[in-house]
Amino acid sequence: MQTKAGSARVRVSTWVREHQRAVTVSALAILGVAAVLGWAILNGQRLTGEAESTPTVQPTPSSQLTDASSPSPTGSAASSTPNPTADDPLLQVSVDGLRMRATASTGADIVRSLDRGEVVRVTSGPVNADGYAWYEVVDLDSRSGWVAMSDGADPWLEAVPSDPATSDLLLRYQRDCDVSPRTSGGIPVWPPDLTLTADGRVVLWSGGGRLGMGDGLLVVRQLSPSGLAQFKRDVLDLPVLQESADYDLERLPNTPDPPGHGVCVNDFTLGAGTGRVNVTAVAWLDGEEGVYWVPSPERRTLDELAIHLEEAEAWLGADAWSEPVARGYASSSYLFWLEPPSDTPWEAVDAPSLTGAAWPFDGPIEQFGEPVGQARCGHLDLGQAFETLRLMRERGVPTQTAATASPRQLSLDGVGYGTFATDAGWFSFWLAPRTPDGYPSCR
Questions:
Q1: Would you tell me how many other CB atoms lie within 10 Å of the CB of residue 30?
Q2: How far is the C-alpha of 215 from the C-alpha of 386, rounded, in Å?
Q3: Are 416 and 14 in contact (CB under 8 A)?
Q4: How far apart, in whole angstroms, are the C-alpha atoms of residue 249 and residue 13?
Q5: 52 phi and psi, to 5 degrees?
Q6: What CA–CA distance (Å, rounded) separates 137 from 89?
């Protein structure tokens, strides 16, 4: 074992470094965003049909929206409630199958059904009709329509909670593998596999898995007070996580060369500031332990913990959560990473032109953010991220989630990459939501 006191940090043995597989990763860019917008929800008479299902999710204090008086044909509710379009807010759908209609009426044509976790921008309203308060919204594909805001008991749309870098970190877990690196230009561009903040929010990859990326989408779920206490007892209080250390591979003497392959490292960060603890451990190598490597009980314990954290929802159990299901993670801040323009003709790389595009931030795209090596990096607030994605979808920018093999439109709850062109050349970019403690960052 190597501790952090006095020696250079070594994550992987010299033998492994010499034999690990070389992997080439495309250059990319990422979106960053920070803006939480408060607004009021109107209570209304319960009418069936506007939400296909209405869970009993109670918002956490950080995302609680203010109830106002019930809507009425006279419009008194609208006049007594702050208009959410004043700050042009973005709101997140908190139910499954929220119907977007052509007009503010339960009898109007359905434009589409909004999924839990989707983010929409409010453009006008409220309009009181059929016992509901309605607002006009637009989605990432620029489709617009009207949605009812509440059934009088539970909100169907909520504000995105908390600015990044304002929530105290309790635990950040990430599994880094040399066959799937998570950096670009030496800067982390991936959110961790799991983040727990002091307010009990857990951000993790939907579906989990040994590489921790699941289906390529991030979700967030709130721990109950008893669930947070359980997490502290079963994870944060483990003896192996009380002091910074690196648990590396150690060769058994007088043994043949191990088979060549890549390795993964489990990385645990607890706390912040001067009290921060960081523990890394090369993953347990099953049949090779005791044959080529000295078995390490610490590495085995930490690998077993990593497996539990990648399946945290099931591992902790239903009683540990204050919400019945997780929702898509919409951050208030996104990392936007741009690789420099290439001289390769953009037609050859399927990079649609965004020349003259109205970007939702100041200055030309070539001067976005700050230089980081040969790339540029910056953080976008939620509104800027939303409009950047709308622009890219409208212009047909090809994008793909970085965790899955099949192409899929870039979304606010996933990490993805794509290419586009301007007069300066074609760019590749990474886009990633940041966790509530502000990770990843450009520096």
A1: 32
A2: 21
A3: no
A4: 6
A5: -65, -30
A6: 10
Residues contacting 74, CB < 8 A, separation 6+: none
Identify residue 361 by its one-letter amino acid code: F
Tokens for 171?
A: 């635990």
Helix (H) / strand (E) element for 219: namely: strand 218-222
Write down all domains in the chain, each with its CATH number in brackets. Answer: 2-25+164-327 (no CATH), 40-159 (2.30.30.40), 329-433 (no CATH)
Nearest alpha carbon to residue 114 among 135, 90, 145, 85: 145
Distance from C-alpha of 173 to C-alpha of 308, rounded to nearest angstrom? 11
Q: Supply φ then ψ for residue 104, to 5 degrees.
A: -80, 75
- pLDDT tens track of the chain, all 443 residues? 544 443 333 333 333 333 333 333 333 333 332 332 333 333 333 333 476 643 333 333 333 322 222 332 333 333 223 345 555 589 999 899 999 999 999 999 999 999 998 999 999 999 999 999 999 999 999 999 999 998 888 889 988 775 666 678 999 999 888 755 566 555 677 889 999 999 999 999 887 654 545 567 899 999 999 999 999 999 999 999 999 999 999 999 999 999 888 889 999 999 988 889 999 999 999 999 999 999 999 999 999 999 999 999 999 999 999 988 898 999 989 999 998 766 665 555 667 888 889 999 988 888 899 998 888 999 999 999 999 999 988 888 866 555 554 556 778 998 878 888 888 888 888 889 999 888 888 87
